[in-house]
Specification:
about 170 residues, alpha+beta, two-stranded antiparallel sheet, 4 helices, 7 strands, about 25% helix, binds zinc ion
Length: about 170
């Protein structure tokens, strides 16, 4: 959904939009449509964008390599500004220290792009199916969340573990 700046009334404009994975360049699948509520207001020459976003995406756990559903429910509030070059940018930073700032062409506000940016800001670099994910056994490759294997006792006798045991004994 694209909103022309000159169509935004003085009291602002609210809208709801839903999107599929295409706004994320199909890097993942959506479990349900990405839902965004936005309120767009004029703020002098800039545009203030407030709202919330909900998404449920299918991600791949970086430890156990299983797919899992990652949920996002977040709020946002930022200013859209025209890029004004380096000098102007310093002024912007000084006058809006507490506000997040994004840039646009000054003519259209693209709600799909706003939604995608909010998701990319939060998307984990190393997704985990859960904090305690045990991952895969480095020896036999089983998913340790599902099965336990006998490799651990062997792993304990690795040279590093032995070295650590010796050090611990030295200390006592
Ligand atoms: Zn995992
Ligand atoms: Zn194993």
């Amino acid at each position: 959904m694209k909103i022309k700046v000159h169509d935004i009334p003085q009291e602002g404009l609210s809208c709801h939009a839903e999107y599929g994975a295409e706004i994320l360049q199909d890097i993942t699948q959506v479990q349900e449509p990405i839902a965004v509520n936005v309120k767009i207001e004029r703020a002098g020459r800039d545009i203030r964008v407030m709202g919330d976003i909900k998404a449920r995406l299918l991600l791949n756990c970086s430890r156990c390599l299983e797919d899992f559903i990652w949920s996002l429910a977040d709020e946002f509030d930022f200013l859209l500004m025209l890029p004004t070059g380096e000098k102007g940018y310093t002024e912007i930073e000084l006058s809006h220290e507490d506000m997040d700032v994004s840039f646009f062409d000054g003519e259209t506000v693209d709600v799909a792009q706003i939604a995608a940016e909010q998701i990319f800001l939060q998307l984990p670099v190393k997704p985990l199916c859960h904090e305690e994910c045990k991952g895969l056994c480095p020896h036999c490759g089983v998913n340790l969340n599902l099965i336990s294997c006998d490799c651990r006792s062997e792993a304990n006798s690795s040279p590093f573990e032995t070295l650590r045991d010796i050090k611990l004994k030295d200390r006592s």
